[in-house]
């Protein structure tokens, strides 16, 4: 961990950190390390630490999550992405903690599509046991996750579940909920445009959701 921190700090660019922080609405400080450089640092760290050959390291993720600069949370996401096959059913609660901590679209969207999607695919029981509560709960980011976790399922998408979660949240005034609904519909329209078109026509959705969800439908009609 200390080695990775040193690598990051040695490559910081405080001038670049300013626009990066501004892009994220000034919610998090940055070291100013661009994505290509950060990935190169992570590759060096993986090669020299051998951490990817070990069991999933929750403490490593938590230590990165507690750091102030956003690059450290991005590093944690990179590590999680490379460890998806190691995740077990009960790790859904660990991922829930990450979703609800230092929450913003950049972390939540990756966690929704990758680890939550992977865990739910391999352990469908977590949908009724956990994700169901997210969709009907009060936390904005968990509701967004419930709408998005099937984003990469394509033909394996449970559209009845997707549509139910969307209808539960369609009256939300939250930008990130309206955007998630549109994104989920747009992605599923690549697989089943007829179903999405019918759903949009039969439900009163926010204009943003309709606009986003209909993007590919316009190309096929």
Give your account of this protein's structure.
The chain is mainly α and 221 residues long. Helix content is 67%, strand content 0%. The protein is built from 14 helices and no strands. Helix 5 packs parallel to helix 7 (105-122), helix 7 (105-122) packs across helix 9 (140-148) and helix 9 runs parallel beside helix 11 (175-189). The protein is globular and about 55 Å long. The model has no long low-confidence stretch (mean pLDDT 96). This is DNA-7-methylguanine glycosylase. It holds the Pfam family DNA_alkylation.
Tell me the Rg in angstroms.
19 Å
Put simply, the count of helices is: 14
How many DSSP-defined strands? 0
Low-confidence blocks of residues: none
Silhouette: globular
Beta-strand share of residues: under 5%
**Helical/strand content category:** mainly alpha
SSE ordering: HHHHHHHHHHHHHH
The main sheet comes to: none
Helix content: 55-70%
Q: What's the end-to-end separation, in Å? A: 53 Å
Mean pLDDT: 96
Helix and strand topology:
Blueprint: H1 2-10, H2 14-23, H3 35-49, H4 58-66, H5 70-81, H6 91-99, H7 105-122, H8 125-135, H9 140-148, H10 159-169, H11 175-189, H12 193-202, H13 207-213, H14 217-220
Helix pairs in contact: 1-3, 4-5, 5-7, 6-7, 7-9, 8-9, 9-11, 11-12, 11-13
Features:
ARM-type_fold, mainly alpha, 221 residues
Short précis:
By secondary structure, the protein is mainly alpha-helical. It has helices spanning 2-10, 14-23, 35-49, 58-66, 70-81, 91-99, 105-122, 125-135, 140-148, 159-169, 175-189, 193-202, 207-213, 217-220. Helices cover 67% and strands 0% of the residues.
């Amino acid at each position: 961990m200390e080695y990775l921190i040193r690598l990051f700090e040695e490559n910081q660019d405080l001038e670049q950190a300013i626009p990066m922080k501004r892009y994220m609405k000034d919610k998090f400080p940055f070291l100013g390390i661009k994505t290509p450089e950060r990935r190169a640092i992570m590759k060096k760290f993986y090669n020299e630490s051998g951490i990817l050959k070990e069991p999933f390291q929750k403490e490593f993720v938590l230590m990165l999550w507690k750091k102030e600069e956003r690059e450290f949370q991005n590093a944690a996401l990179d590590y999680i992405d490379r460890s998806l096959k190691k995740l077990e059913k009960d790790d859904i609660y660990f991922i829930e903690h990450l979703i609800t901590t230092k929450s913003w679209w950049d972390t939540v969207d990756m966690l929704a599509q990758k680890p939550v999607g992977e865990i739910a695919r391999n352990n469908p029981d977590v949908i009724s046991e956990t994700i169901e509560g997210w969709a009907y709960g009060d936390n904005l980011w968990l509701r967004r996750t419930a709408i998005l976790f099937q984003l990469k399922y394509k033909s394996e998408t449970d559209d009845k579940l997707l549509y139910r979660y969307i209808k539960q949240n369609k009256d939300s005034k939250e930008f990130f909920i309206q955007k998630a609904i549109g994104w989920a519909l747009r992605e599923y329209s690549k697989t089943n445009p007829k179903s999405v078109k019918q759903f949009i026509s039969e439900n009163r959705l926010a204009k943003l959701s309709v606009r986003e969800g209909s993007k590919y439908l316009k190309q096929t009609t």
